[in-house]
């Protein structure tokens, strides 16, 4: 009975953590739309949303209600089941990435140490790549099921783009895995807390990963799958109401969780810079330390979200041939070069060779 009680306690902890992570991801995605419109307004020297609530702070709620109450339209000659399944897959896969991200170290409640990570699997990086690869099916299914040539063209563009940039992204991470010797995100964060952040050891790998992250999330200048001037909106041209909302929110959830992954891999995750975390825990306690670490993690994520938005309103969209040239002729060779150089340096270091 005692073992059964412990299992139920763990189940309750994980369920609460899942609810918190999913809710936070959706709320942050919702208010990222507000932040993006405000940042765009500042860059373009205008005000942005300022009617719904003070400073327009309720604008995301108004937009969400508008999507909920808009008419549901399903094209007559579409594949109805797949037409509904597409945005559902897009949103589900976007949210699932948060399951392996360590949002903090641990908290102590009810005489128990509770981990702030839903699942500490020892193949965390492979899990992230697997889920990211599944995300393209939401776009492909939605574009094909619409029975619209522009939607299908946008879906084909998205599939080609994601497959192309996943190669460079994966190879850029192999160099990081050589240094860390693990696939666990939690272990990588622990290593960075005790030593240098991996951004200082893998600057080229981070740059490649960052560019590929823009492509994987379909953000400008890589938003060729929904280029309005060519494809009338691309793969979601035929969508309305909350099915369209799922596609739009999935993009912002992907932005948020991609930023969290980059912070975890290259910027120490929840590590507080210039602070000895172990000493601070002894001073203020585990729970307050978890609050500070969560705050540091969130600040780093916000910096990346700002970068995503800043780039969107600064850099024009690529042509499709430029998109493919960048992925295959520049990023892929650079990722291979970075992997080989990293392997050579590790080999020299292990054999105590010096130049």
UniProtKB/TrEMBL annotation:
It is a multi-pass membrane protein. Its main location: membrane. It is an enzyme of class 7 (translocase). Keywords: Cell membrane, Membrane, NAD, Oxidoreductase, Quinone, Translocase, Transmembrane, Transmembrane helix, Ubiquinone. One of its GO terms (molecular function) is quinone binding. One of its GO terms (biological process) is aerobic respiration. It is found in: Cell membrane; Membrane. It catalyses: a quinone + NADH + 5 H(+)(in) = a quinol + NAD(+) + 4 H(+)(out). The keyword Cell cycle does not apply. Its EC number is 7.1.1.-. The chain crosses the membrane at residues 15-34, 81-104, 124-146, 167-189, 195-215, 246-268, 288-310, 330-349. One of its GO terms (cellular component) is plasma membrane. It holds the Pfam family NADHdh. InterPro entries: NADH_UbQ_OxRdtase_su1/FPO, NADH_UbQ_OxRdtase_su1_CS. PANTHER family: NADH DEHYDROGENASE SUBUNIT 1, NADH-UBIQUINONE OXIDOREDUCTASE CHAIN 1. NDH-1 shuttles electrons from NADH, via FMN and iron-sulfur (Fe-S) centers, to quinones in the respiratory chain. The immediate electron acceptor for the enzyme in this species is believed to be ubiquinone. Couples the redox reaction to proton translocation (for every two electrons transferred, four hydrogen ions are translocated across the cytoplasmic membrane), and thus conserves the redox energy in a proton gradient. This subunit may bind ubiquinone. NDH-1 is composed of 14 different subunits. Subunits NuoA, H, J, K, L, M, N constitute the membrane sector of the complex. NCBIfam families: PRK06076.1-2. Belongs to the complex I subunit 1 family. This is NADH-quinone oxidoreductase subunit H. It comes from Ginsengibacter hankyongi. The gene is nuoH.
């Amino acid at each position: 009975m005692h073992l059964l009680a412990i299992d139920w306690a763990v189940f309750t902890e994980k369920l609460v953590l899942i609810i918190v992570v999913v809710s936070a991801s959706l709320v942050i995605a919702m208010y990222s739309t507000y932040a993006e419109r405000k940042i765009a307004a500042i860059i373009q020297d205008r005000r942005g949303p300022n009617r719904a609530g003070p400073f327009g702070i309720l604008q995301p709620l108004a937009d969400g209600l508008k999507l909920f109450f808009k008419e549901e339209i399903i094209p007559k000659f579409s594949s109805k089941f797949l037409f509904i399944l597409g945005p559902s897959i897009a949103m589900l896969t976007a949210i699932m990435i948060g399951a392996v991200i360590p949002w903090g170290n641990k908290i102590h409640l009810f005489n128990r140490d509770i981990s702030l990570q839903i699942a500490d699997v020892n193949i965390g990086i492979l899990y992230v790549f697997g889920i990211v690869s599944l995300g393209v099916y939401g776009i492909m299914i939605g574009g094909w099921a619409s029975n619209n040539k522009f939607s299908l063209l946008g879906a084909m563009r998205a599939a080609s783009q994601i497959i192309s940039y996943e190669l460079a992204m994966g190879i850029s991470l192999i160099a990081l895995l050589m240094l860390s010797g693990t696939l666990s995100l939690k272990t990588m964060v622990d290593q960075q807390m005790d030593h240098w952040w991996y951004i200082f050891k893998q600057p080229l790998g981070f740059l490649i990963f960052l560019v590929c992250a823009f492509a994987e999330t379909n953000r400008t200048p890589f938003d060729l799958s929904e280029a309005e001037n060519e494809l009338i909106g691309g793969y979601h041209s035929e969508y309305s109401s909350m099915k369209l909302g799922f596609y739009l929110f999935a993009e912002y959830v992907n932005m948020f969780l991609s930023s969290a992954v980059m912070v975890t891999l290259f910027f120490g995750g929840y590590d507080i810079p210039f602070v000895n975390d172990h000493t601070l825990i002894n001073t203020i306690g585990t729970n307050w330390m978890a609050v500070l670490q969560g705050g540091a993690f969130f600040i780093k994520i916000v910096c990346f979200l700002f970068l995503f938005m800043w780039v969107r309103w600064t850099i024009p969209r690529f042509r499709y041939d430029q998109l493919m040239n960048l992925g295959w002729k520049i990023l892929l060779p650079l990722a291979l070069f970075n992997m080989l150089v990293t392997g050579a340096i590790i080999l020299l270091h292990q054999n105590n060779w010096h130049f």
